[in-house]
Amino acid sequence: MARPTGQETLPPILFPGANSTERRRLAGLKAAGRIRSAGPRLYVSVPRAETAATLRRAWSTIVARLFPDALITHRTALEFMPSPRGEVFITGAAHREVRYPGLVLKFIRGPGPLPDDPKFLTLRSSSLPRALLENLTTRASARSRVLPIEQLEARLEQILHTSGEAELGTIRDRAREIAEELGWGTAYRALDTLIGTLLGTRHGKVASAIGIARAAGEPFDPPCLERCQLLFAELRRPLPAIVDTFTAADHFRNKAFFEAYFSNYIEGTTFEVAEAEAIVFDKQIPAARPKDAHDVLGTFELVSDLSEMRRTPPTFEAFVEVLRARHATMMARRPEAVPGEFKTMPNRAGDTVFLHPDYVRGSLRKGWELSRDLPPGLARAIFLAFLVSDVHPFVDGNGRMSRIVSSSELLAAGQSTIIIPTIFRDDYLQALRALTRRHRPAPFVQAMIRAQKFSHLEFSPYPRILAELTRRNWFREPDDARIVE
Asked: Has residue 140 been placed in a domain?
């Protein structure tokens, strides 16, 4: 239905005219082939191939215009969009269907609006307590009108997470009143058991992963798990394995120094190399910056301890204890960072809000379990580095901790550790954001592979490696130069 030049632009959907003038106009447009009937009391001006998608998008406008007294119920009252089968559920005086291309309005005989059923456009929709009851029907014939139980559990868990137990209690109390008024006792008992199970006061069955985790007292963040699963899939392909074959006595110690230096530099704890040398090797703590100096020194004490760094925990609980112990060492002089303890308040960096404390242990567990199915070495190092960074379990020091976890996995596998020098900082952070914000794992994997490759150097003797890193622009800002590989 291409529109010739000069013709008026028509809306994608049109309704029957309210008077004879409007009806004649529609008849003329239909005769000219500019509109066509899409079903009862509805016309469209879009191509046939676009009709179904257009009507699905406009479902609420169609219902409000053609059925202004409708009560939106069941799964539609929770999703406010057509079901995957294009169905919109409406409670009315009788069972019937009104069909359009890609859209089915399904009227269900049932009770009308209750006083607290809120307005939706010019319509009404079931309140949350009522909609939850409607979606807990046990009749097989009604299954298409209800959300899968896993999605209901996820919604209740999110309410519990964001609004607390009191809000769930309020919902349950109102649902009880509605059930008594409408005779929906079976649905209420199902809802009461489900809420009690999520709160840990009942021992009912839950079907969703997040519901099971919440009932066990260890909920996780589904978006975090989704990102981890994307990265896991990317890491299942073969990756290079760069073995660290350098054996000079001071190679490991010198590399640990530069790892501690650059890992802190990324986080904003900046010193000149000579200052960092005096802090680490001579224990000269500058009076003006004692905490910053101890950040570098604490990181060095960890990454230079070969027996500690080769320790990879065999269980999740051991993994948590290792994380906490290493954090306690690294942040020992930062009491405001609560060394060795997971955060109890949400934290953020700029416009990025990290996981809520409720989800820390559960998300770490889900990620750690995934990591067991990755080969030791670079794949696990990349995965666990991202996991710790994404979960952000501590008040401070999370970026450094993520890189320490990565080094530990690499050392345990006999592979070269990864250093992120200043010159590579922006590449590293942008690759990390590609995964956290845009769900693209490949850039982060490629950045870490590249970093391991250029980090594979002999760090002995010290004067030679310092000159070599300077030549390779490791100490330069990203805007000033390019890394020499």
From this structure: no
Q: How high is the pLDDT of residue 190?
A: 94
The token duo for 437 is 């914000």
Query: From CA 70, how far away is CA 77, in angstroms rounded?
Result: 12
pLDDT score for 6: 54
CATH of the domain at 306: 1.10.3290.10
| pTM recorded for the entire structure | 0.78
Residue with token string 């870490």: 448
Amino acid at site 263? S
Overall number of domains in the chain: 3
* Buried/exposed code over 388-426 (b: 16+ C-beta within 10 A; e: otherwise): bbbbbbbbbbbbbbbbbbbbbbbbbbebbbbbbbbbbee
Q: Looking at the structure, do residues 78 and 43 belong to the same domain, yes or no?
A: yes
Domain housing 323: 222-471
Burial string for 354-379 (b: 16+ CB within 10 Å, else e) reads bbbebbbbbbbbbbbebbeebebbbb
Q: Specify the pLDDT at position 121.
A: 87
| 121 and 186 co-located in one domain | no
Q: What is the per-residue pLDDT for 140?
A: 64
Among all chains, which residue has been given the structure tokens 């008849």? Answer: 27
Q: 46 and 192 share a domain?
A: no
Residue 77 CB-half CA count within 13 A: 27
CB of 129 within 8 A of CB of 176? no
Collapse the DSSP code of 68 into the 3-class scheme (helix H, G, I; strand E, B; otherwise coil) and give the result.
Answer: coil
Name the residue with tokens 């307590």.
Answer: 129
Dihedral sign, Cα of residue 222, residue 223, residue 227, residue 228 = negative
Q: How far is CA 269 from CA 77, 291, 480, in A?
A: 51, 10, 20
